[in-house]
Amino acid sequence: MENHGEHHHPPYKFIFMILIVCTGLSWIADELKDRFPGPGWLAVTVLAIAAMKASCVMLYFMHLRFERHWKYVLLAPTFILAVGLPLALFPDVAVHYYDVDVPQNPVENRAAGNYHGETAEGGHASAAHH
Amino acid sequence: MSHSENSHGSSAPPLKMGLAIPDSKLCMWLFLGTEIMFFTAFIGSYIVLRLGSPGWPSDPKDTHILVLAGGINTFVLILSSYLVVLSHEAMIEKNYRKAWNFMAGTMALAFLFLGIKSVEYYGKFDHDIVPGHIAENDEQALQKLVREFDSSRISLLNAIVPGDDDVNKKTSKLSTGPGEGEAAFDPAMVAAYQKLDKSYGELRDAVRAEKLSLHVGVDHEINPEIVSRLEAMRSDEQIAPYFHAHDPHPMVYGNVFASTYFLMTGFHAIHVVIGMILFGIVLLQGSKLDGNWIDFVENSGLYWHFVDLVWIFLFPLLYIVDFS
User: Fold this and answer.
1) pTM, whole model, 2 decimals?
2) B309/A23 CB distance under 8 A
């Protein structure tokens, strides 16, 4: 803010109200989770709300909206790592095509549909579980 | 060009190296950059692990996750972030008393956040939802039950026969009686021990011989034999204070769930405590709080907003999202 030589007054109260409403929306989404077409929709909804809240906090409470271009230089590497790490782990941990035979997942557990890799019948289901 | 030539030859303000923000603020942002990488590594790994672990525990009845507590804590942190902003604004307006009051409000909300978090942690520990303690299938649950019966038996034995002797020596003392100069054993306690020891022995032998199944019936209910055994111990007023066995409840991927839960919420709580120390330094200034503290308050606020940011993502990811 001081970069511009004058003091800005972002609409703090308005931002605060948005954040509270968004928190309420997350709560309502959880209460209505059975009405979502699938668990993925609930995840997308509440994470989108979280991203909106985070944007409000960063842009206004942390004043990033009023800062100069140094913010991009400083935050770009962190953003790359934040996205890069899950992407790097994703193929081998989250969507592996091969059967991970672990004692936690006995055969009956897989047959019950809780495991979407190698099925109990020996067939091969989709590797992308969720 | 020398420094003196520059100073005397022009009316322009002297050149300043670097960015047009206070050094302390730049340092805080660099630090927050490392903090973003720190937490996104945890959160990213958690998401990937969860996606790759079919059957991950997500039912609040299993995990003892309190969505309401998480929601209230989200509100508490957002309100505290708002108060920090108002405190900084008051500092700019040179209303230091008002700034101190807002800061005190933030501090109170930080305490409230930790209080609610400790209630949640207590619930986890009470149900033994701790990394490395969670049975992930029926066999592990039965073995854990036997171990808990055994440790309860030893606790009761130690209460009856104090001293440093090993368990075997203490057990034989129960039948031979106390040594010379030692106090007599309480007969009611001895009877209670024998009851617990008998139940432990029967349970251990049944589990070893694979004659006891954890679940029965089409509804997959806990075996009534196990339930009645547990109730018999818990209802005995001599045994109950020493009996620490939990209801057997296997949870697939329960240990990695507990590890990630405590890792992320634990590090977040540590950050809350550090924020409280920063606020405490400001609050300790009391009436001496003045314009020299504007940068400190702003940087503490930046740090606190980051703590809030992390929780904004932890709340849906830990409390609401269900990928199964």
Assistant:
1) 0.84
2) no
